[in-house]
């Protein structure tokens, strides 16, 4: 990789996942000079890093793809209803090669700082490779779940075995054959990897702090007839998906809780359980608002766990008690069944946290457990982690971390006062992680491209939100979230999983309402933005 010194570009893009790749493609289409910096040695972002066994998307593959190019979506074929990580990574590479993206991506190059130069009205970007690039626009395509949350246990360096984080999995994979393995955490990454690790390891112990809801994926090969139908109707289906609150096609019934007898409700939950995936939460339109309905939906899942897991004590420990859907619902393949295996044990650490690691393993509840390998499935410093880990400074040298000390503040989840021409793809305050990320990414990248086009057409250099607009947006997001059951549990949506992180509900619930707001703002000539 050649070092870039004192180069000037129109757009510097950070991250070569699906957001950064599409931003580069759009920038080129507008005739702009763009450069992408990527920490990894390949494209794919999330799918480059999360190579843990069993890693799979929880959105159906026919929907989890780009729609900006008709030929691309017609040419590509997915093998399974829910694609596994290697296939999604192949897709990312296919797109990168097809549009010749890699020549403008500087791999294995981490952006360390980005400072706004007030006088020159440029972003000065520097990397760990010594690049110094000046850019008119800075696009942070850094991902929502990309900064690993590795716990800081005492004794980590004493542990004699190997430890891994699911989001930083070794490229060559890990062979657990004959090994005594610990998995710490029971989020989506754990729920996907536990069944696979259990089949390989000599023994697996799962350390659970909070149990999680999971619905079955009912994964299967893509039926060629369904694929042909999908492809014949792709544009119509994509438009329909955008009307769904999470940008997906699964049906959300326009029926509120309480308007049907309990027996009908249970039959509907059963029907959706059999369909698999997120559709479970679409049984009633208000399941994330109405606690009574939510309780019934949750109890239905707990009953399934009790039916599946043979040991009643283990089953009870696996039963979550929080609001279902409050944390992103997990979509599993054989998770609960795994606890019926002789080589799998569950340890509840809700009351006695892990005290420390030792040379042989770890200590909790006054007991030492011996392991050859420990897997941290402990999640991410979500949504703000990757932004706050870069030294980003706006007007007057104000650090972004300082501005966001009490939690992130944005306008549309895209921009923030005092940081002109800084664009956050799927940033806090946008629907992002509550949706299918691919259409959400495309909507944001298209919006940013339109803004840049608008500035150029009007001979303007900079854009940033007005303070009033940002304050009103933050209030608006809080108000929407406050009307739901989302704030009721300790989720990463709230930053509750990272010690010391301010508690702010970060994503915007409701994709169609969000898109409408964006469109109205654009139509008004970008109300709420100051241009210069
Ligand atoms: P998650 O969903 O944040 O899950 C992390 C898990 O790790 C969760 O069960 C945590 O328990 C547990 N955890 C975190 N820190 C600790 C410590 N210190 N000790 C014990 N247990 C701990 O991350 P995932 O990677 O599984 O999934 C992230 C998203 O990726 C997911 O929602 C999908 O959208 C895809 P807690 O619940 O905090 O008590």
Structural account:
This is Cyclohexanone monooxygenase. GO terms for molecular function: monooxygenase activity. InterPro entries: FAD-binding_Monooxygenases (IPR050775), FAD/NAD-bd_sf (IPR036188). Keywords: FAD, Flavoprotein, Monooxygenase, NADP, Oxidoreductase. Belongs to the FAD-binding monooxygenase family. With 532 residues, the chain is an alpha/beta fold. It is built from 16 helices and 20 strands. The strands form 5 sheets. Strands 1, 2, 3, 4, 5, 6, 17 and 18 form an 8-stranded mixed beta sheet that branches. A 5-stranded parallel beta sheet has the order 7-16-8-9-12, covered by helices on one side. Strands 13-14-15 form a 3-stranded antiparallel beta sheet, with no helix packed on it. The longest helix has 21 residues, at 437-457. The chain starts with a strand and ends with a strand. The mean pLDDT is 97. Residues 145, 151, 166, 184-190, 209-210, 328, 349, 354, 377-379, 490, 492, 497 line the site of ligand NA7.
Question: Nutshell version of this structure?
Answer:
The protein has 532 residues and is an alpha/beta fold. It is built from 16 helices and 20 strands. Strand 5 (122-127) and strand 6 (132-140) form a beta hairpin.
Write down the overall mean pLDDT. 97
Runs in which pLDDT lies below 50 for 5 or more consecutive residues are none
Number of helices: 16
Largest sheet: 8 strands, mixed
List cofactors, ions and other ligands.
ligand NA7
* Strands, total number: 20
Shape: globular
Percent helix range = 25-40%
Task: Report the β-strand fraction as a percent range.
Answer: 15-25%
Classify the oligomer: single chain
What is the CA-CA span between the terminal residues? Answer: 36 Å
Task: Give me the secondary-structure category.
Answer: alpha/beta
Taking all Cα atoms into account, the compactness measure Rg is 23 Å
Pfam families: Pyr_redox_3 (PF13738)
InterPro entries: FAD-binding_Monooxygenases (IPR050775), FAD/NAD-bd_sf (IPR036188)
Keywords: FAD, Flavoprotein, Monooxygenase, NADP, Oxidoreductase
GO molecular function: monooxygenase activity
């Amino acid at each position: 990789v050649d070092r870039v010194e004192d180069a000037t570009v129109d757009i510097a893009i950070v991250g070569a996942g699906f957001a950064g790749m599409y931003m580069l493609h759009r920038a080129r289409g507008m005739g702009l000079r763009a450069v992408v910096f990527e920490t990894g040695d390949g494209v794919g972002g999330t799918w480059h890093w999360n190579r843990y066994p069993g890693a799979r998307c929880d959105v159906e593959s026919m929907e989890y793809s780009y729609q900006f190019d008709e030929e691309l979506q017609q040419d590509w074929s997915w093998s399974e209803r829910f694609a596994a990580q290697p296939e999604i990574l192949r897709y990312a590479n296919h797109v990168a090669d097809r549009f010749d993206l890699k020549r403008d991506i500087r791999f294995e190059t981490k952006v360390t700082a980005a400072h706004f130069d007030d006088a020159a009205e440029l972003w000065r970007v520097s990397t760990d490779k010594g690049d110094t690039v000046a850019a008119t626009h800075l696009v942070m395509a850094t991902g929502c779940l990309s900064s690993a949350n590795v716990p800081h246990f005492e004794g980590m360096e004493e542990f004699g075995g190997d430890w891994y984080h699911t989001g930083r999995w070794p490229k060559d994979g890990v062979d657990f054959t004959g090994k005594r393995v610990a998995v710490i955490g029971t989020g989506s990454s754990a729920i996907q990897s536990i069944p696979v690790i259990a089949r390989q390891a000599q023994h697996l112990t799962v350390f659970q702090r909070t149990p999680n809801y999971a619905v079955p994926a009912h994964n299967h090969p893509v039926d060629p007839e369904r694929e042909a139908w999908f492809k014949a109707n792709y544009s119509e289906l994509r438009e329909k998906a955008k009307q769904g609150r999470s940008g997906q096609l699964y049906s959300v019934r326009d029926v509120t809780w309480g308007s049907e007898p309990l027996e009908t409700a249970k039959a509907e939950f059963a029907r959706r359980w059999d369909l698999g995936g997120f559709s479970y939460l679409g049984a009633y339109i208000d399941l994330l608002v109405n606690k009574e309905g939510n309780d019934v939906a949750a109890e239905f899942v707990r009953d399934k766990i009790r039916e599946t897991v043979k040991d009643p004590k283990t089953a009870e420990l696996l039963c979550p008690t929080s609001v279902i859907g409050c944390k992103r619902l997990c979509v599993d393949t054989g998770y609960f069944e795994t606890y019926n295996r002789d080589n799998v044990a569950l340890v509840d650490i809700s009351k006695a946290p892990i005290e420390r690691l030792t040379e042989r393993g770890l200590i909790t509840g006054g007991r030492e457990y011996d392991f050859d390998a420990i897997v941290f499935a402990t999640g991410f410093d979500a949504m703000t982690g990757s932004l706050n880990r870069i030294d980003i400074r706006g007007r007057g040298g104000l650090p972004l971390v300082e501005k966001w000390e009490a939690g992130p503040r944005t306008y549309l989840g895209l921009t923030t006062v005092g940081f002109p021409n800084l664009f956050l793809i799927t940033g806090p305050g946008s629907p992002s992680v509550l949706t299918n990320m691919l259409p959400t990414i495309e909507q944001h990248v298209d919006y940013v491209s339109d803004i840049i086009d608008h500035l150029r057409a009007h001979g303007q250099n900079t854009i940033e939100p007005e303070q009033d607009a940002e304050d009103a947006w933050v209030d608006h997001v809080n108000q929407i979230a406050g009307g739901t059951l989302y704030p009721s549990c300790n989720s990463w949506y709230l930053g509750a999983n990272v010690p010391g992180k301010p508690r702010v509900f970060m994503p915007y619930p409701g994709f169609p309402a969000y898109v409408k707001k964006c469109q109205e703002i654009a139509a008004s000539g970008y109300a709420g933005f100051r241009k210069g």
